[in-house]
Design goal:
single chain; alpha+beta; 4-stranded antiparallel beta sheet; 3 helices; rod-shaped
């Protein structure tokens, strides 16, 4: 009996020397909107941390290198987690040199998927709104006089002016010419010369 008591007294401190996980972020069985950093806090200083993140179907999510700082271990989650269930599996060496390990299940809300769907709907609605916004401008442009009509009117004006100038040039002020009137060297009619008075005979 005394030997059993001594044995229990000798082994009790060794059993109590094992470190344990005090808290975690995300917490066990918690529901969160997203995770950027996993933080584990133990009852004492730990070494050689190992942290693994898995989905419900066993797929491993890539994490940053875990860093031990006294009783705390931190590791980054570089990718955005989709909505669903996840499990954090951890393993460290406690201050007494014994390895300890455990798992932390948690859930991510499906808000990220909803936000992605909303962004997709907004992007698809934007081109339709832009197209509707351009319709009034196009209608306003269509209500004016087309350019080809202005060009046709200008051509008609030019043609009419040319006909008018040609008609004035061909019907210039020139009187009827006398065939008996003498013509000068330059082709212009000359004034008739006066004949001297001849006295009448007896």
């Amino acid at each position: 009996m005394i030997g059993c008591g001594l044995f229990l007294a000798a082994t009790a401190p060794a059993a109590l020397a094992h470190d344990s996980l005090k808290s975690s972020s995300p917490a066990k069985n918690a529901t969160v909107s997203g995770v950027q950093t996993i933080e584990l806090e133990y009852s004492s200083r730990v070494r050689f941390p190992l942290v693994v993140l898995r989905t419900a179907d066993g797929k491993t999510i890539q994490l940053g290198e875990p860093q031990a700082d006294g009783p705390k271990v931190r590791t980054a989650v570089p990718t955005q987690l989709a909505g669903g269930s996840y499990v954090i599996a951890w393993r460290v060496v406690s201050s007494d040199g014994h390895p300890i390990e455990g798992e932390i299940p948690f859930t991510v809300k499906g808000a990220a998927a909803g936000a992605t769907a909303s962004a997709t709907e907004a992007a698809s609605a934007a081109p339709a709104t832009s197209a509707e916004g351009t319709r009034p401008a196009a209608a306003a442009q269509g209500g004016g006089i087309p350019g080809w009509l202005w060009g046709g009117l200008a051509a008609l004006v030019v043609a009419g002016l040319a006909v008018w100038l040609l008609s004035r040039r061909t019907s210039g002020p020139s009187g009827p010419s006398d065939p008996d009137s003498p013509v000068g060297p330059d082709g212009q009619p000359t004034a008739p010369t006066e004949q001297p008075d001849v006295p009448a005979g007896p």
